[in-house]
Amino acid sequence: MSDPRVEYDLRGTVAWLTLQRPDKLNALAGSMREQLLENVRRAAADEQARAIVVTGAGRAFCAGGDIDNMVELRGGGDAAGFRRLLHTGAEVMLALQAFPGLTVAAVNGVASGAGLSLALSCDLRLAAPAARFAAPWIRLGLVPDWGASFWLPRLIGAGRAMEMVMSGDIVECEEALRIGLITRIVADDDFEGSVQEQVTRLAAASHAVAHAKRLVRLGAEDSLEAAIARESEAQEECFESDDFAEGLDAFLNRRRPDFRGR
Hints:
49% helix; 2-enoyl-CoA Hydratase, Chain A, domain 1; globular; six-stranded mixed sheet
């Protein structure tokens, strides 16, 4: 049986955070939440990391919280311990949102409960054909947490989100793509290699990516006038960047740009 842990692996410009508890479908136990938070912060401090990919070892992404741990906390009346789990998980989600580069969930198998929340908190969700999604909290007498009640209705609509939460039923990969829960299905013959290639390409212009993700996020919540004002400010800053000069030169010379993030 493996020790519950989260591995950090910088592959080029992409920091891979891998949940390592494959024998338990990467259900979160021990200090995995704290390690996940530490590794997101590590990527934020790493000048080479332009993107984060979160994935799971083996045949699952993350099956959620460890049920044995829940039984222990409930049996001991340890409300403070349960609160710590919620608080640390919330910090992970906020740290992923605060990361200036692209964040991607590479969903290689089941993403349930906290695993679903973890996937939802990333900017994009790339899924293998075997990926499955579930919001099973209500079957345990609990409610969505770690931001799931915020992201689900925004991605798939309030009606579908309500059905998914109330039923706790599994959503298969093709259906997840159809309703907008995931961004893309990636062939799994070389799943990680394909994800690495796509993320490297999408996150290359890191200076502009940081502005773009902030604009898109705020644009969903605010007025058109406010969005236009933010866009103008960000565009003017990007206009002065070396990356913009590089992008123009690459376009004119019909080559791939070599962005440096400044």
